[in-house]
Amino acid sequence: MNLSFFIASRYFKSKKKRNFINILSRIAMIGVAVGTMALVIVLSVFNGLEDLIRGLYASFDAPLKVELVKGKSFEVGDDFLDSLKAVEGVVSITEVIEDNALLKYGEDQMVVTMKGVSEEFLDKERFEQGYFAGDMTLGSPDQPKAIMGRGVSFMLGVDPKNEFEQLRMFYPKAPRAGTIDPRQMYNSGRLGLAGTFSVEKKFDDSFVVVPLTFARDLMDYGDKRTALEIKVAPSASLSSVKAAMRDLLGEGFSVKDTDEQHAGLLRAIRIEKLFVFITLTFILAVASFNIFFSLSMLAIEKKKDIAVMIAMGATQKLIRSIYIKQGAIIAFSGAIVGLVLGFAICWLQDRYGLVSLGVASSVVDSYPVKMIWTDFLWTSLSLIVITFFAAYRPATIAAKVNTVEHL
């Protein structure tokens, strides 16, 4: 066994003459344990929230989305679609026409995001992680139906049981010169209500999904589309399919995965997670001040022992090493307890949902958690750095004990 570690462990286990040194050591261990546990739990909650958001968005958005880099719409023909479907890993392609439109129900009206989609949009995984009520259908060309966000339905006061009141959608068109009839300045269409969904506030409060043919006729788009949403086979590599799509389409088109489609929100969550990590690390550093005081008191109490060891040939490096390892034993004893408790609490939360969100309208009942090994690694590394700085000064003071004065 390493000599410095052996002596440090004996100091840790032995009773001190001054009882408050023992108390300081125990307080330091408890502080490190609580801080480590809190850090693990909070980081796991952020991971869970990030995964939850990804899952909710994935139930509305496709794994890959093709759009123009510059411009609003592009021509889509059968040959163009066939070339994209030929890419290995592509399961289906949803044609999309998306723009703002005015939606009216009864006497109420609001501007919504109309999303016209082809039949492939309503696959079996759609709205899987959200809330859905009604029929998963967009009707027929003769009787089109809409699926709207729950927020839109609430703001318009839509009654799904009222079969006599229909939704009316209005979209402006370029007026002809000399036209004074306001009815010539917009297109309109009627729809029934098939169902409502709740995925995320951004979608719930603005999106209305309609048949592609309805959106095409309302906007006079013909073969033009604003986007293509591509579903990828589970066994295929998403990055490989995305790279193949970019090579096929060229620089004029962007191909974005789910994370890139919502890069701003995910970046905000990661930045917030980073700042929370830094803040809790500072709190952990403050808790580790007790290690500094505990080692300082121990160095004062053990001056005679240090003098004896120096007289026997111990170097200053060995004395420093003893006290640094003594601090490491205190810190890591607390850290191990904290990591185990943090893991156990996160596991129980993930399995049994101990802590509820307390929001009745939420799509999940309890706080989501996800443990990632890198969080445990960074927590441990930050603790190593904090322990070194907390123990270095007392260790240096102990190494400078005057042998003549204390023998």
In short:
InterPro entries: ABC3_permease_C (IPR003838), Lipoprotein-release_system (IPR051447), MacB_PCD (IPR025857). With 407 residues, this protein is of the alpha+beta class. The chain has 13 helices and 12 strands.
Structural class comes to alpha+beta
Describe the strand arrangement of the main beta sheet, using strand numbers.
3-4-9-6-8-7
Q: Please count the beta strands (DSSP E, at least 2 residues each).
A: 12
Q: Strand percentage, roughly?
A: 15-25%
**Count of spatially separate domains:** 2
The N- and C-terminal alpha carbons lie at a distance of 28 Å
The ordered string of helix (H) and strand (E) elements is HHEEHEEEEHEEHEHEEHEHHHHHH
Label the overall shape. Answer: elongated
Main sheet attributes: strand count, strand direction, barrel closure: 6 strands, mixed, barrel
Question: What's the layout of helices and strands?
Answer:
Blueprint: H1 3-13, H2 19-58, E1 64-68, E2 74-75, H3 78-85, E3 90-105, E4 108-117, E5 131-134, E6 145-149, H4 150-156, E7 167-172, E8 186-198, H5 201-204, E9 207-211, H6 212-219, E10 224-225, E11 227-232, H7 238-249, E12 253-257, H8 258-261, H9 263-287, H10 289-301, H11 303-311, H12 316-352, H13 373-399
Parallel strand pairs: 4-9, 6-8
Antiparallel strand pairs: 1-11, 1-12, 2-10, 3-4, 3-7, 3-11, 5-8, 6-9, 7-8
Helix pairs in contact: 1-12, 2-9, 2-10, 2-12, 2-13, 10-12, 10-13, 12-13
Subcellular location: Cell membrane
Keywords: Cell membrane, Lipoprotein, Membrane, Transmembrane, Transmembrane helix
Family: Belongs to the ABC-4 integral membrane protein family. LolC/E subfamily.
